[in-house]
Amino acid sequence: MKKLLLGAVIGALIAAIGLYVYQRVGGSAAPTGPVETAESSLTAASKGKIDAGASLRTVKMAGSILTVKDGESIQAAVSKAKPGDTIQVMPGLYKETVYIDKDNIAIVGVIDKGAWPVMDGERKLNDAILYSGSGIRIENMKIVHYKGNAIMGQAGNNFVIRYNWIVDTGVYGIFPQFGKNGLVEYNVISGIEDAAIYIGMCDNIQVSNNEVFASVAGIEIENTRHAIVENNLVYDNAGGILTFITPGLPIKTTFDVIIRDNFVVNNNHKNFGAPGSIVSGVPSGTGIIVMAADDVRIEDNIIRGNKNAGIIVADHKSFANITIDPEADPNPDRVSILRNFFANNGYEPIDDVKALMALNLTKQGPDALAIGGGTGSCISNHGSVKTLNMGSWADCGNATSRDVGSLLLPKPVPARVMGAMEQHELGPRLYSGICAGCHAYNARMIGPPTQIIQAMYADNPQGIADYIANPVKKRDDFPAMPSQGHLNEAQRLAVAKYMLEVKQ
Amino acid sequence: MHNQYTGKASLQNAGVGGPRSGLPAYRDGFTPQVIDLGRYLFFDPLLSKNGKLACASCHQPDKGFSDGLPRSLGADGRPLPRNAPSLWNAGLQHRLFWDGRASTLEQQMLGPLYDPKEMANTPANLRNSLNASPEYRRLFGLAFPSAGKEIRLDQVYTALAAFQSTLISLNSRYDLYAGGFHDALSAREIEGMNVFRSFVARCAECHTPPLFSNQQIAVIGMPQAKGLAFDAGAQSVSGEASQRGGFKVPSLRNIVKTAPYSHSGHYTNLHETVEFYTLGRGHAVPKNEKLTLHWHIWEPKLSPNEINRLVDFLGALTDESFKPSVPRRVPSGLKPMPLPGSGNLSKPLTKETP
Predict the structure, then answer these.
(1) Phi, psi at residue B3, to the nearest 5°?
(2) What is the CATH number of the domain that holds A423?
(3) For a tag on chain A, would you pick the N or C end, based on fewer CB atoms within 10 A?
(4) Nearest chain A residue (CA) to B282
(5) Residues A296 and A402 in one domain
(6) pLDDT, tens digit, 9 for 90 and up, residues A349-401
(7) Interface list for A 282-311 with B (CB within 8 A)
(8) Among A126, A438, A484, the residue to mutate for chain B (most B Cβ within 10 A)
C-alpha cells in the first residue's frame, strides 16, 4: 500500500514538472511525454476510448522538430522533413497549400494564449493540406477560406487529425480517402458546402468528440467499413450524420458502422450544396441518413429538433441525383436503431415525406422513417418512437453496440515499402528515369554522353556516386548538373554501377 | 511483373488510392513464346477479312496504341463510332471498351475481330487462314507445345492477351516521384499534380493513381460525334437510364501520345480536353438529352494557369520503355501494320524468329 502511495506522489510530481515545462514552452508545443508516433497512439486508441484519450495527449514523434514561424513556409519545412519529424507551426498567417508525400510527419500548431497558426486560402487556394503518406498527424491548426478541402488524405494509413479549427474551406473540412486506421477527433468545423468531416472509402475509423455545424452535412461515412462515430456535437447542418454507399465508386460497400452518443440537434440549415452533388439531394432538416449501408447500429444519440425527420433509412432508388451502379447493392440491410432520445423531429417534413405520411394515414412527422428495399433491420422501443413505414421492422431485443470499444486496428497498418523492387532493378530504373533525361549513350544531349563518363570513371562507380551527390560545374559547354543528393548512398552507387555497364 | 507497386497493398485490394497504393490484379505469367506469337498476330493483317487491317492499324505503338484519328476507320475505310482506346496497361484493366462491356482481354478482342464494320472476320475464316500458314503452325507449336497440331482460336486469343499484357507503363517521372524521388518532377509539374488531386479540379477522384483510372463508368457529358445519333454508352450495356451517356474512365498513362481525346475524339489536344471540365456543368450535353451527370462534374473555375499546369503534369505520365517494335515481317507474308512511316525502329521486345 505504501509503495503504491509513493508511486502516486512521484506521479504527481512528474505531472507537476510536466505542467511547468508545458507552461514554459507555451501553448501546446511538443509535450514531454514518452516518445510515441501517431501509429503507437492509434494502437493505444484501438484498445478502447479511455486508453486512447490518455495516450493521445502525450503523443510525440521520434524525429527532430522543425519550427515554422510567421512569414515562413510550412511546405518548405515539409520538404526538408524526414519521416519521424514534427513540424511545429507557430502562431501566424500561412497562405499556402501544403502537400505531404512522405510517411510519419506531424504538423502541430502552437497556440499561444489564444493566438493560433492560421492557414488562410483567401478563397483563392484549392486545398490547405494534402497528404499521401502514412502516419500523418495534423493538429492545432486553424484553417480558413480554401476552395477545396482543409485537410485531404489520399491513401495515407494510420492518420490522426485532431484539435483543428476549420471554417469555410470549400467542399469538405476533413476528408481522408482510401485510408486505413485513422482517428478524427476534437475538431471544430463549420461553413462547409458538403460534409464537414467526410470519411470516403476508408477502413477502421474513429470520429469522436468533434463539433460540426453550419455545413450541408455534418459527418459522412461513405463506402467505408468498420467506423465509429461517437460523442460528436452535430447541429445546424442540412443533414447531420450520413452513412452511404455512393454508387459509381471503385469501392462498393459500407458496413459495420456505429453511430452512438452523438448530439444530433436542429439540423435545419438551408442546403447550399453544389448543384449536382449527391449531398445537394439531402433534405434539409434530417438528423441521420443511412443510404444503402449495411450493419449500421444507431445507439444512445440525442436526436432532436430535426424538422424533416430524425432518421431516414433509404435505398439508392429513393434518393435524388444518383446514378445506379449495378455492382453496388442498393439496399440498406441489418440497420439497428437501438435506444435513442427522440424529440420534436419531423415537424416540417418535405413533400416526399408528407406523401409517405398520407399513404400511412398519419399526420405525425417522423422520428425515423424507412423507404425502399432492405432486410433484417430492427428498432428498439418501437412503441415510443414516431416511425413511418417501419411496420415490418423487428424488435432489436437486447442488442447493443457497447461490446465494441473501438474499431481501430490493434496494430498499425504496415508501411508500404519499396521492398518488392529487387536490388538489380534499382540501377536501371534510376538510370532510365533520371540520368537518361540528360545523358544519351553516345550523343550530346543536355549532359555529356554516357560513353565519355564511362571512360572517365572506369572501375570507379564510387566516384560517380560521390560526384552526383554534390556536382560542380565542370564543362564550359554544358550546364552544371543538378544535385542527386535526394538519392541515398546505396541508390547513388547502384545507379553509378549501372551507368558504367550501359552499352547503348 | 516487378515494379515499385508490386506487392503493395491498396484499400480493399481495389488497386486505387494514392501514389503508394498497389495495383489492381493484373495479367501475367505468359511464356515469351506465347507473348512473341501474340506480337506477330497483333501486327498481322491476316486477322482481318480483307487482309488490310491488323490490331495495330488502330492501336499503333507510336501513337500510344491509338491511331491519331478522332474515330478509327473500319473495314470499309469509313469512321467507326468511337475513338480507339490506348492499350497501355490493358492487362491491368477489368473494364474494356468505352462502354465497359468486356471484362477480359479475351472477351474484348472478339469485338473488333468479328464486328462486320471493323476487322470483319469470322471465327471459321480466322481459324482456316491461320492453319493454312506453315509459319503460324510452327509458331503456335512453339507457343503451345502440348496442344494438338491444329491451331485453335482460344490459343489465338491467349496469345493476343499475352502480348497486350506486356504493354506496361509504370515507370514515368511521376512514378519516380511516387517512389520518393521528389526531384523527378519540375516545380510546374508538382503544381499541376496538386491541382490534379485538389478537390477543386478533382481529376484524381476518377483518374485515380496508380493507373490514373478508377475503372468506373462516369456520365460527364463530353461532346458527341457530329452526325451520329446520341451515343448512349454504358446504358446500352446495363439498361440503366441513369447510365445514359456514361463511359469508362480512361487511364491517363501516356496520355500525351494518344490525341485526339474523348470517346468521340472531339478534342485535338490536352489543353482543350482539360478545359472541358471548367466550361460549365453539362455545357456540351445536347438540348434534348437529360443526363444524370457525375457529381464531380461541377464548376471548378480553373484558371488558365491551372489548366496549363495540369497539362504539364499529364506530360509527366509518359513511359514507353516497354514499347514493342513493329516486326519487319509477319508470318502471313502480308505487310505488317501500321505501314512504314508510322512504325517505329526501337529494339525488338524479343528476338525475331522468322
Answers:
(1) -155, -175
(2) 1.10.760.10
(3) N
(4) A276
(5) yes
(6) 999 999 999 999 999 999 999 999 999 999 999 999 999 999 999 999 999 99
(7) none
(8) A126
